[in-house]
Amino acid sequence: MAEAQHRTTGEYEREPVPEEGRLGLKSYVGQFAGEHVAGTELMIGPLFIAGGVSAFDMLFGLLLGNILAVLSWTLLTAPIATRARMTLYYQLEKICGRRLVTVYNVANGVMFSFLAGAMITVSTTALGVWFRFRMPGLNDLLPNSWGWVLGVLVMGLLFSLIAALGYKSVARFANIAVPWMVVIFIAFGIIGLHELGMKSPGEFWNLAQEVIWKGGDPLDGQTKFTFWHTMFFAWFCNMAWHIGMADLTLFRFARKSWYGLASAAGMFVGHYMAWITASILFALQLHENPANTAVLPGPLAFRACGIAGLLCVIAAGWTTANPTLYRAGLAFQAIIPRSSRFWVTFAVGLTASLTAIFPLVTMRLLDFVALWGMILMPMGAVVFVDFWVVDRLGMQKYYCEATGRSVNWAAGLSWLVTVAASALLVLRGNIQIYFVGLPGWFLASLLYLLLSLAMQRKSRPGGRPSEGIG
Amino acid sequence: MIRIAPLVSWLSLLGSLLASLLFFVDQIPLDQAKSVLLILAVLWFLVTPVWMERSAGRTGGRERSDS
């Protein structure tokens, strides 16, 4: 019980986690397995098919991408977390200063709000099955019926109110719902495969190639997905958490750094099995009616599992939208500490609901997730370089803490220039957004190193960088 | 009651898997599989809170969100 309290009451937020606060491997396996069965998995799986992915590219691209994600948590995030044992925010504050952390909080809060909006959209598609209102198609950017607008607002209002009022009770409900949702996702796959004509496991590969992930051209308006797109998407869809270092906060409780391997439970349940079964449901829909390209988790789940499927869609959306809204609220509340958490969370929820009316983010979820990683990733590079490299080159580690400055411009400029350069490359069509994270991380690392060298050399009277503080 | 509650919960999950597998091997029609899934879902959500509350703290909560 004490373990849960550490995370929910914010213990050790401004101090390293002591020995008695450490957690075992089981906690991490449970946490990762639970949190990656989200409502958005039901959107992401079908979008691979919309991108014209082939069976090999889907199954092996996801496999390799998820392995790389697990390795990123294990080799990059967890080693720093288990040595420094501080939250990302506290560590960033020491390096970058409070002002830059505030900007980071705003960016994080905005992205969380959009993600919560996508989860509200997913859950509303279940309402659409019950109330039979018209729902958006794959390329719709605007709402296409008043029923949809009303459904989103009702669902959003409900989610916002619950997030503002009773975060912990929904967290408890989520713990109960997760094992059941995993089983329903498996049922989606088994039932979907049989409805597509599969009679025995031996027929899977043929069906996968010929019917489910046929490859070829993407659907209208979608990006063609190859092996590399799939691999990089699977690797970087949680980029903000692993190489972006957001999970320093989570792993600071881990007894050993290799507990990062526990992320495999989330990757292979949520980002492998769930994406595959969700895409099987979409393949079934296209198989039955090739003209029906709408990616709507409600009808997809209802077709396979009936009302239990609809309940799974609502539960998956609700249990993940709730902490998302809560975290977005916390991010904004940190900017105005005296504001009421209830009203901030409620206002964030209403804003997320307004964004959910417009299906733009949800129907472009693959791009949105990549954009999120691109925006937050440079700060992970800053933390990485500051922790492992800066003092070895004779510079000052945790610069703002040591000097009392409110902004570390080396970190700020590294962030800004990396995001601007990445965005420019993507907008000019030089590189697709799914791939920009990798060069972006190296660019941010290099920039932070060079700018720190220049800045710290300039700020020392003798022209020499200061001694590291260890 | 609390002693057998975990057993009932896990059996309801096993039953859900079994229902979809029985449909896969053409032993039950889809409508029947859907009804079984719904009944077992209700059973899971009625019985599981009785015992899982105690161990929730040990397994970690869903306190952040996936993308």
Characterization of the model:
The complex is a heterodimer of chains A (470) and B (67). Chain A is an all-alpha fold and 470 residues long. Chain A has one domain (24-364): Amino acid/polyamine transporter I (Up-down Bundle). Chain A contains 19 helices and no strands. In chain A, helix 2 packs parallel to helix 12 (263-288), helix 3 packs across helix 12 (263-288) and helix 13 (297-333) packs antiparallel against helix 14 (341-357). The two termini of chain A are 35 Å apart. Chain B is mostly helical and 67 residues long. Chain B has one domain (5-51). Chain B is built from two helices and no strands. Chain B is elongated and about 40 Å long. Chain B starts with a helix and ends in an 8-residue tail after the last helix. The chains are: A mainly alpha (470), B mainly alpha (67). At the A-B interface, helix 1, helix 2, helix 6, helix 8 and helix 13 of A face helix 1 and helix 2 of B.
Present the secondary structure layout:
The complex is a heterodimer of chains A (470) and B (67).
Chain A: H1 2-8, H2 25-35, H3 41-50, H4 55-84, H5 88-96, H6 98-131, H7 146-165, H8 167-195, H9 204-212, H10 227-236, H11 248-251, H12 263-288, H13 297-333, H14 341-357, H15 360-363, H16 365-388, H17 399-403, H18 409-427, H19 437-459
Helix pairs in contact in A: 2-12, 3-12, 4-10, 4-12, 5-6, 6-7, 6-13, 6-14, 6-16, 7-13, 7-14, 8-12, 8-13, 12-13, 13-14, 16-18, 16-19, 18-19
Chain B: H1 5-24, H2 30-59
Helix pairs in contact in B: 1-2
What is this structure, in a nutshell?
The complex is a heterodimer of chains A (470) and B (67). Chain A is mainly alpha-helical and 470 residues long.
